[in-house]
Amino acid sequence: MSEFNAPKTNAEFEQNFAQIKPLMTDNQAYFESSRCLFCYDAPCVNACPTGIDIPLFIKQIHSKNTLGAAQTIYNSNFFGYACGKVCPTEVLCEGACVYNLQEVPPIEIGRLQTFATDKAIRSDKKLFQLAPSNGRKAAVIGAGPAGISFACEMRIAGFEVEIFETKEKPSGLTVYGVAPYKITNEEALDEMDYLRKQFGFKVHYSHPVTTARNIEHLESEFEVIFLGIGLGITSDLGIPGEEKEGVTGAVEFVERLRMGHHEITVPKNVVVLGGGNTAMDAASESARMGAENVILAYRRGKEDMGAYEFEYDLAKSVGVKGLLNAAPIEITGNGKVTGVRFIKTRMVNGKLENIPGSEFTEAADWVIKATGQSKRSDFLAHISGLERDSKGCIKVNPETFQTTNPKYFAAGDAVSGGQEVVNAVANGKKAAQSVINYK
Ligand code: SF4
Q1: How far is the CA of 426 from the centre of ligand 1 (A)?
Q2: C-alpha angle with apex 397: 140 to 371, nearest 5 degrees?
Q3: The CATH number of domain 137-232+374-437, selected from 3.90.226.10, 3.50.50.60, 3.30.565.10, 3.40.1120.10
Q4: What's the gap in Å between 107 CA and the centre of ligand 1?
Q5: What is the pLDDT of residue 400?
Q6: Which end of the chain has fewer CB within 10 Å, C or N?
Q7: pTM of the model
């Protein structure tokens, strides 16, 4: 049973979605940075997909050189602030910190990172020198973490960069898809504004690139095109009743919530289907929006869940009830959802099978599907010679991120099928470096 009342004002929304990694004060950052052992060949650095020199920036914070710390962070990761808040640090840098071996709490690297980058953003300090224009032009499709990261790196080398974004705001999932208790819209957008002013790339908002004609136009105008298009809408489950009112996709729900805050109404009984991090977020968010009964149903056991354990624990801590080894077979109701019919499952010789006669129904006013997103196949089919793998992801050279059409480079979820923001940031930068170094 959820302990939250439905928020009626933005202040109540912010209370229900209080930041789980709040900004540190100066004193907290000074104390926390003093604990770092500045390890040789630091495991925290090796665990960071962007390879930030973590002991160096912590040392800089401790010596009160906070802007220097921000520079160290941004040198490796253009989403330094956002990643400090939304990265699963528990399994990345902080999970690798040597203090874990002594059963001492690891250094709060994520919060130190946002502390330093926040100072840079608030000061509006320009940290990078851009090379003079080299007269070469690159287009980026998608203003998400991969696309923005690509754009920043290209601008440093003197390329002109124009970004084409379908939505009204930049930052991709950081604004539209991450749970609001990880980062607020204002925080994510402030960092984007800081980057845009600093790097001077041009963004065309509400400017979808979808047709063969759009593609033809970009190909004639730009030397290089980067695809940072992410994923599409939530995939169908393929069970009866999916069309009923009250069935929604998790990414669509999170986006509505991020944009609408307290103006969104969540009903009393919510069933979330899925076992990944998006399912955990959707379940936690439903509970924080005042849903009384939130069930997170997954067709396999806990050990097979794609979600991090701490995300599952976080969902349970706000009253979400886990329902494991239960596969949905029908969404019931007459036009509008009234429940989900499940069948129990078990593993037999490594294969998941339904248990005959074990069907049961859970009441639901809403069903949130968090069972994967579609690929943007229709759009990608317009690009000649662009190959995709058996799952529909764009094929790239893993070193250079160049696609099978040499004019195009790509990174982010459209290539990986769905990873962390930090992976998209890291690979967007690597793709830009390949273009810059391409002879
Ligand atoms: Fe500091 Fe921990 Fe990294 Fe060592 S592993 S450098 S103690 S943050």
Answers
A1: 21
A2: 70
A3: 3.50.50.60
A4: 7
A5: 96
A6: C
A7: 0.92
